[in-house]
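User: Hello, can you help with two protein structures?

Assistant: Certainly.
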Amino acid sequence: MDVSVIDPYPMPGPDLAVENRVDWTVDPARSALLVLNMQGFFLRPYARGTSPLEPLLANCSTLLETCRRLRVPVIHTVQPGTQAPGERGLLTDFWGKGLDDALEDAAIVDEVAPDAGGAVLPAWRYSAFFGSGLERQLRSLGCEQLVICGVYAHLGCVTTAVDAFSHNLEVFLPYDAVADFSAREHRAALAWAASCCAAVKPTAELVAQLLGASRAPGR
């Protein structure tokens, strides 16, 4: 499939019609932020200055800054460049050879780049849990909740969400801090996640919950 160009589409907003089956509240003392594959290779198909790229970058950056301020663990994932056939496996059948080691492809974009102490894990398959040690790292940090942002909604975001759910982690998927190949796929991914494995909420609501909890008595 050719995804060299992704046509602009409106980022979902308050009119998004998804039915959450859970009403979880994100807690900075129990959560981590996972930033999925915000590399040049995956963002280049979007047109700069248009939606969904610009709100994606802005909302991911807001989540990142909030979590850093509150000392919520932040973990980035990146797809490794120039993978051997045995490493890439069946991804090649669907998507070709993938990215190479060129800096403009492999690097996380500046707007959401990790800081000096930030954790960066390899993304070998759609789910960020596959072969990365992510679950072990989350458990070592005492995390029971996971906020997922990045790309692409119907691939890495929802497969990571259902994998996290399977590991008994409460998942939060900010609907305006993920992006996809089209509005249809974006909205379908959100609806599916809300139906079975995640709380789908706007970035602003999650940020308000994080900040509100941090100001609560005893914090």
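That covers the first. Now for the second protein you mentioned:
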Amino acid sequence: MKDLKNNKKVLSLIILNEFCERYCFYSIRSILFTFLIKSYTLSTERATFLVHSFVFLCYLFGVIGGLIADGFLGRYKTIVYFNFLYFIGNLMILFSSYHVNLFTLIISLTFISMGTGGLKPCISAFGGDQLTSKKEVEGFFSLFYFSINAGSLFGIVLSPILASYNCVNNNCYFTSFKVSTMVHSLSIILFLIGSRNYIKKQPDKQFLIRLWRYLKLKYFFSSKIEEENEEVQIICPDMQKDVQTTIKIFKVFMFVPFFWMLNDQYSSSWIDQGNKMKSTINFFKYEFYLYPSQMAAVNAIGVIFMIPLFVKYVYPFFYRRKCLKNPLEKMYFGLAFTIGSFLISIFIQILIEFNYQINLLSQIPQYLLLTAGEILMSITGLQFAYSQSPESMKSLVFSGWLMTTAIGNFYIMILSVLNPFKILLNASFTLKTLIFSAIVGSVGLCWMMIVCKREFI
């Protein structure tokens, strides 16, 4: 009974920790695009590049964090150390909002990306380590994903409001960054409270060496094995099986960057689109002002309410008709829905280009489709990564999953630099970006249909 109470306590602390950390991250991300344009007077192209460079680094450092956790420090120590880097970054971005300095801002974003990136592959796997039964996996990850979206919802809604007043030196972002720093501090405290009760699995410090030796023998046809450490020389069948399983999982991950390339533009292209729309909402005799960055709250709210609907009604409905039983099928439809959301956004952007007065609420349908796509793709991928990955490589597999987001954002970075469809002289950068992204996403969907097998690994 005591163990059961401790288990519930530590899982609760991990979920609350994730809620606070996600609030911090999304409160920064939701206002970063407008912060760069208004406080640093950057162009749309440069702001887009910096926003997605930041997101790219967040997920790139996820790979590094996974390797460090699996091969050196273990998940617990990795979480603690990277939280420290995260906190330094928060203090620096707070300073950069008070004294405008692009170099300081870039360094602060780098530290934040290192911190949150290092946490990403570890915190979910660390939570999984606390589970005592396989039956708990789906329930935990549903609550975990719920906490992610609840935290992001509060960050997306509150951060633009906090940034709109209590101005310092003609910019109003200091208050928002101050609150996010305080919430992140709370997340660290919550995580440390459960330290004594956590199950802390020790890292396999020979893991990376054995992995490298196996890959060298398997793929580089090396015939020489140094005779320094017999324990390291042994390429056991378990290692071969783990690597082969991981490679199969990564093959499934290959098409996921196309999804993230589309999905993550809610923090850039869709905000820029919203800036050109009517933001005043009339409700009976009352009038409200809605910030374009707050529209992402539709996604967060949608995920919170649609997850139970999908679990209780949508999935059982299709299961009875022998559909969506395969995770690949869910991910397939997830990408298709996301492309559909971009078709809607392209239509709205064309109307804006022709000087039609469009209300910001017109973005709701595209956000709802994006949300459905995220549930089918992201939650399925998260469960897929944990349930199919070998124990010795769980953080590495989670890093691979996060790397798909980095690659997707890298595509957007290239897009912002190349500025495709220059032939469309009268079209805005945003419209060109939306069109090109939808085309690339459709190509990725067709490629997925051809390549991916419809069987679970």
